[in-house]
Amino acid sequence: MKNHRTLPAAGLILAATLCACLPMQAIAQSKPSAVTTDTQPAFTVLGYWVRTSGQKEAGGSGLIPQLWQRVMEEGLLDNVPHRADTNFTAVYTDYSSDQNGEYTYVLGDRVTSVDKVPDGMMAVTVPAGKYAVIASDTGSLPDVLPKLWQRIFAMSPAQLGGERAFKADYEIFPEGFDWQNAQIAAHLGLK
What we know:
By secondary structure, this protein is an alpha+beta fold. 24% of the residues lie in helices and 32% in strands.
């Protein structure tokens, strides 16, 4: 069985670069996907992090692509203790305001407990609550992930099923998914 931590880093880095470089006011060029809402319990993610903003990420030399590259090349997610599953999770949290301000981006794994946070890692709790779940189209990750976030940025609160809370948003990358035929869902915390 192929471990998600050994998947091609180039695809991850390219996807992170493309997604991170999108202007926050981007207008969707394609039809928005269906939105569902889900009330879910809190969970904790332990991983590596950067503090950034859309403006800092613009231009392809942002902190998020560097984080993905470092984590994947060095196999850093293998160091996450008490993993709850074999997926990895990207969390956008600690927003200073909204999608235009600074936020903390954590790339890691869901965990069952956090006895001690290893050096360089951060534990973040994704709060229980209502989340809008918006699936990407299916295709190459570097194509579908940026388009998904373009749609999100262009959607009104009515289309999302509520106003965004800007406490925590996340994406789950299941173990062994096909980077060339991917479908990823963004989970957006709602008020």
